[in-house]
């Protein structure tokens, strides 16, 4: 049978049904609680004092026994031995007194009524904290070169899988494929699909670009959902594919609008990259055809007077000499200099070729000065004697 009598004697500070009207009840409860706390403190100090005396007595008793044992081995009859034995008896009596006080204190504690502080205690405690799925490593704060290196390594290891994901269309297929390859649910996959879409549009594969663009937006929605929930993308792609299939019209329209907007951005970016590529190719062609003086022969040719253009188009040297002779000296020198700097006109081409064969070369400045002098002489001579200058073309 269970004994419930121990619950009958419980001390509570506010355990009073009626109090005198002239007594302030809250103050009375406060005084009673303070008195109980003070009694508990005194009892605690008394218990600590008994524990301290008990430990000291046991320690002295142990040391006395050890000394008596040592003296008995040395000398059987010794005044010190008798003194130690007397001390041992006194310590035994002291021990009995301490143990008696301890028993009395325990009996006193059992007779004391329970209160809010002694009625119970915690048997054990356990704390459980729900944790979110661990997020993947965030590389947004890494240097650009490190991020690019990681991106290249990821693409190198998973390019076939990335292309296969990009070619999927049904939501269930995409969901199952990511479940089989959860590491693909990351920022690198979205970046790769964007680059692939741009390249496809530049190659004029618009239909395939639109197909891959749909998969790219799905991945971007998964990444955005993971940011909102503050979880790893691998923990939420299943939720996205389940939701998109039963989504309300407003959510579905928002998704379709994002896909259409993404396709427009891809077309615009692809057109910009094509224009940049064309411009870069033109600049490379221009650099490749620059003459020894750093001028573009096409630009120089277009800036020449029409008679000189006809001479170069026909490659007629006598006509060129006559045309130069009819021009003012300064203007003729200006155009001849630009033709030499752009490579349209090579002064002393045959002589230079012969010198190269002989293993010698002349400096450009001397050849240019001689050519300018020859051009000036040709103008003067043609005006006076109608004779011609015969420079050697290459």
Automatic annotation (TrEMBL):
UniProt keyword list: Chaperone, Coiled coil, Cytoplasm
Listed Acidic residues bias regions: 360-372
GO MF term list: heat shock protein binding; protein kinase binding; protein-folding chaperone binding; unfolded protein binding
The UniProt record lists the keyword Amino-acid biosynthesis: no
Region (Disordered): 1-26, 347-394
GO biological process, one term: protein stabilization
Biased composition (Polar residues): 381-394
Source superkingdom: Eukaryota
Chain ranges of the Cdc37 C-terminal domain: 289-380
Family, as annotated: Belongs to the CDC37 family.
Name the UniProt record assigns to this protein: Hsp90 co-chaperone Cdc37
């Amino acid at each position: 049978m269970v004994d419930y009598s121990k619950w009958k004697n419980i001390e509570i500070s506010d355990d009073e049904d009626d109090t005198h009207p002239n007594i302030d009840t809250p103050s009375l409860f406060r005084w009673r609680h303070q008195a109980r706390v003070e009694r508990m403190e005194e009892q605690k100090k008394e218990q600590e004092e008994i524990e301290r005396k008990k430990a000291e007595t046991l320690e002295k008793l142990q040391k006395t026994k050890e000394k008596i044992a040592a003296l008995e081995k040395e000398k059987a009859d010794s005044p010190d031995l008798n003194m130690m034995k007397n001390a041992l008896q006194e310590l035994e009596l002291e021990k009995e007194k301490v143990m008696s006080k301890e028993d009395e204190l325990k009996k006193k504690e059992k007779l004391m009524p329970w209160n809010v502080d002694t009625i119970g205690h915690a048997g054990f405690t356990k704390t459980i904290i729900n944790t979110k799925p661990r997020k993947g490593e965030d590389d947004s704060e890494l240097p650009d070169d490190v991020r690019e290196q990681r991106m290249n390594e990821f693409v190198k290891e998973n390019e076939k899988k990335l292309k296969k994901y990009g070619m999927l269309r049904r939501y269930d297929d995409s969901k199952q494929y990511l479940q089989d390859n959860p590491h693909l649910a990351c920022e690198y996959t979205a970046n790769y699909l964007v680059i692939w879409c741009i390249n496809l549009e530049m190659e004029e594969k618009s239909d395939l670009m639109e197909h891959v663009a749909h998969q790219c937006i799905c991945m971007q929605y998964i990444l955005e959902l993971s940011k909102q929930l503050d979880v790893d993308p691998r923990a939420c792609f299943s939720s996205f594919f389940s939701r998109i299939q039963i989504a309300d019209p407003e959510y579905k329209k928002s998704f379709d609008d994002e896909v259409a907007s993404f396709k427009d951005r891809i077309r615009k970016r692809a057109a910009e990259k094509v224009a940049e590529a064309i411009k870069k190719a033109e600049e490379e062609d221009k650099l490749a055809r620059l003459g020894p003086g750093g001028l573009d022969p096409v630009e120089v040719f277009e800036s020449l007077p029409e008679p000189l253009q006809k001479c170069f188009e026909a490659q007629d040297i006598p006509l060129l000499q006559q045309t130069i002779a009819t021009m003012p000296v300064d203007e003729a020198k200006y155009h001849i200099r630009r033709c030499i700097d752009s490579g349209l006109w090579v002064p002393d081409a045959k002589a230079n070729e012969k010198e190269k064969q002989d293993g010698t070369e002349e400096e450009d400045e001397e050849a240019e000065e001689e050519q300018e002098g020859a051009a000036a002489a040709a103008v003067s001579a043609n005006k006076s004697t109608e004779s011609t200058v015969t420079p050697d073309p290459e």
